[in-house]
Amino acid sequence: MMASMASLSTPYSSSFLGQKEVRSTPTSGKVFLRGAHPTKAMYGWANSRSKRKPPPVAADGVLNVGKDLGFRRDLHEHYTVPDPQTTVPLGMGSYGVVMKVSCKETGTEYAMKSIPKTPPNKRESKSPNAYLQKLENEVKVMQHVGPSLNVVYLYNVFEDDTHIHLVLEYCRGGELWRRIRNGKYSEAYAAKIIRSILRVVAQCHAKNVIYRDIKPDNFLFLNTRQDSPLKATDFGLATYYTPGEVLTRRCGTPSYLAPEVVMRKYGPEADNWSTGVTVYQLLSGKLPFSSQRGSIKEVLRAVLEDPVVLDDEFWTTKISDGARDLTTRLLDRNPATRLTAQEALEHPWVLAGGEAPDTPLCGSVVQRLQRFGTFPMLKRTVLRYIAPIMLQEDSTLGSLVQVNELYSIFREFDRAGDGRLTLQDLMLGLDKAGYSVDDSEIEQLMTHMDVNRDGVVYYDEFLATMIDWLQVEQYDSEHFHHLVDRAFNTLDGQDQGVIDRRSIGRLLCQQDDTAEECAFIVDKCMGEADTDGDGYISREDFFTLLHTDDHDMLDQYDDRIEHLHMSMDNIEGDGRLVVPKEDNTLYGADGEPMTKS
């Protein structure tokens, strides 16, 4: 049985840390999303040979508003875009308009958010450089958290002389606030909605992102069914933060602002307050803080001073004790004692009717797919290579990561029995196992599983995706760090104590990538790992990249279990994955050894 498990690692077997990769090109089962290479489509240059230009900078160092920001400019070659002057938009806001567009090759419909490069108001026009950085930040945040199924997926980014265009997942179910307005739902349904919102908040905070605009208007239903998944959208106010950092910019929607935001001294806890306001609104149909005169000043005063009414006849007779307790603990004016998003996810009222805290591996497949997708590209690639080596060298980890069960799941999904999963395999496998995931969402998950971007998923890629790396690091940090150190030494081809662009390119760029495409991949990976911006990845940078944050837990992601009925065969074996021992050489995308020079 161990030999058959090892055979699943070919033809893209572990070439990292000593196992050479035998390259071949599958003749069937290719997955080319929306008429383009899946990963290329995601990162913004699918089917495009246009050169990317760096953002133009004036003599004073200020970005020129309305000029090239380096995004693609071939929107109309790939999408049918209606005339905004004669077409009713899907939505409008202070920062742009959302239109329905369609892919010319496949006919698939998307939502396109067009944001002007010129600041829309007088205040932001005073600092155009900051405004453009805000636009680029929205793209960066969505690419970081977007692989989660709780977030509207960003497929592509384009620009022209006047606008940036975000091609997004098209959610047909409308905004959450419309269902609140209708008011026809149970408390159990409200708890399900709050679980979705709390997952978004917890995922953001685990990645050091503050959303800063949690409210029902910013959550969309994927479809019109009553049980439709809920997804966060509009990350225009989201920002990265350093733990312990105090933010001072007052932004968001007045009725949902936390007291500390009003006082211009806040951190990620502010999102939890805004979630509490949403809970209050979902349960009662009204806001806890408002002004009959529509005065923003009066709303802000109420946020700071007015009591939260949870003891009137409605709350004591119509709302459960658990719901009132959660609302009270989220609407705590003291950020230090307010529930965190993770704590709120573990609240009995939120868990009631939901998944059990200790979901078995076969019930957490979709959660694991999502979390792996949020990892940076370089991290996913390195984990794919070290996973089988780790299990071979430490047999005790086989039991910890449930390698036999992982193999059984892979075998159930692999209909052809050829050791690789196609998109169709994944769709049918998840459906048969009892998961409720839309086909377009499975395409999104597949994009991030397919580390080497060949359109199919091999066992080592599946293994890296399914392993709970947070658990591994906590259980055997010494062995994990040793493997990371070996990976760094292999990539450090010049023995200089750093990883350079050439090594990253040889590891990640494929034979059919153009020079521009390869440069884009390398730039992205360097930007994710090079913390000091010196153009190199230090050993400390590399260890930081491979570390999984303690707060990034599986239960923050939607399990999508509809009626789990996956059968697990009893597989004999000690959990070890046998891989051939060769030399300690890393082989690049060209199949040649990356020897030290």
TrEMBL record:
GO terms for molecular function: ATP binding; calcium ion binding; protein serine/threonine kinase activity. The keyword DNA damage does not apply. Pfam families: EF-hand_7, EF-hand_8, Pkinase. This is Non-specific serine/threonine protein kinase. ATP binds at K113. PROSITE patterns: EF_HAND_1 (PS00018), EF_HAND_2 (PS50222), PROTEIN_KINASE_ATP (PS00107), PROTEIN_KINASE_DOM (PS50011), PROTEIN_KINASE_ST (PS00108). Residues 401-436, 437-472, 517-552 form the EF-hand domain. It comes from Pyramimonas obovata. Residues 84-350 form the Protein kinase domain. PANTHER family: SERINE/THREONINE-PROTEIN KINASE. The lineage of its organism: Eukaryota, Viridiplantae, Chlorophyta, Pyramimonadophyceae, Pyramimonadales. Keywords: ATP-binding, Calcium, Kinase, Nucleotide-binding, Serine/threonine-protein kinase, Transferase.
